[in-house]
C-alpha cells in the first residue's frame, strides 16, 4: 500500500482581492478572497495561483475548467458549485460546507480535504491521485467511472458511496467509519479495508456474488 503524498501549501504574502466579481478565464495570483460573496459568479476557466479563499460563498458559482494551484480554501460554503473538469493541484480544502458540488471529470492531485461536510459530491470520471480525505463527512459521494490512486480516508464518515466502474489503486478505506457502499462493491480490488469493515460489507458482497446465506 503506497501512501498518499500530501500537499505542502506555503502561501506568500497575499494581497486582498478588491474586485467586484470573477471573470471567465481570469488570472488570480497571490490574492486573498476573505468572506467574498462569489455566489452565481462566472469564473469558468479561471486560474488561481498561490491564493486563499476564506469563508467565501460559492453557491451556483461557475468554475468549470478552473485551475486551483498551490492554494488554500478554508470555510467555503455553497450549493451547486460547478467545478466540472477543473484542476486542483497542491490544494488544501478545510472545513468546507458544500452540497451538490460538480467535480465530474476533474483532476485532483496532492489535495487534502480536511473537516467539514460534503453532500452529494459528484466526482464521476474524475482522476484523483495523492488525495486525502481527513476528518470530514461525505454523504453519497459519486466516484462512478473515476480513477483513484493513492487516496486515503482518515477518520471520515463515508455513506452511500458509489464506486460503479471506478478503478482503485492503493486506496485506503480503513479510516472510514461508517463505510456504506451503495454500488460498485466489486470494484474494491486495489483498496484496503479493515476486518471489521469486511464483516459489515459481507451482506453486500454476498448479494453481489449471488451467494445465499442461510443458517
From TrEMBL:
Query: Gene3D superfamilies this protein is in?
Result: E3 ubiquitin-protein ligase SopA
Pfam families, alphabetized: Pentapeptide, Pentapeptide_4
- Keyword Repeat applies: yes
Q: Which InterPro entries match?
A: 5peptide_repeat
Keywords attached to this entry:
Repeat
What's the domain of life for this entry?
Bacteria
UniProt cross-references to PANTHER family, sorted A to Z: THYLAKOID LUMENAL 17.4 KDA PROTEIN, CHLOROPLASTIC
What is the protein's given name? Pentapeptide repeat-containing protein
